[in-house]
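Sequence only, no structure available. Ideas?
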Amino acid sequence: MTEVRHPLPPFTLESAREKVRLAEDGWNSRNPAKVAQAYSLDTNWRNRSEFIHGREEAQAFLERKWAKELEYRLIKELWAYDGNRIAVRYAYEWHDDSGNWYRSYGNENWEFDDKGLMVNRFACINDLPILEHERKFRWSQGRRPDDHPGLSELGL
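Reply:
I predicted one. C-alpha cells follow.
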C-alpha cells in the first residue's frame, strides 16, 4: 500500500496553510510514532546540530525530544511556499525536568515528495529561558484550539 499524506504538492496558499496546521497538530500530539508517519522512509533532517536519516531515526529523535521537553506546546506559521516546498516559522514552550521554562523559536524549510511525505526538513532553533508567568501557550496538552492566537497575533 502506498502512503499518501494530503494535501499534496504543488501547494496553493490554502493547501500550504493546511499542511502547516496538520504538522503543528501532529507535533502537539507528542506521539512520535504518529508524527514520524508524515515523513518519507528516507527522510533527511537537520535539527539544530543533529542530522537524522530515515523515518526510524526521526521517530527515535522525537522520543528523546519529548522525554526532555516537558509540557511541549507548539505554534507554527506559514512563511512561504512554492511547488513542493514550504517554509515555516514557529515557537514552542516547554520545561525541563528541573522546572525551568523555555520558549524556543525557529524556522524550518520543508520539501515534499509527490505523495505528500516530507523528504527534507531543515530546522534552525534558538532557546530563550522564560519564567513560568511569561508563558503564552497555556492550552491543555494536545491540539491548539482554533480560537487561540497564532504567532503574529501574539507578537512573536
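Residues 13-154 form a domain with the Nuclear Transport Factor 2; Chain: A, fold (CATH 3.10.450.50).
Hope that gets you unstuck.
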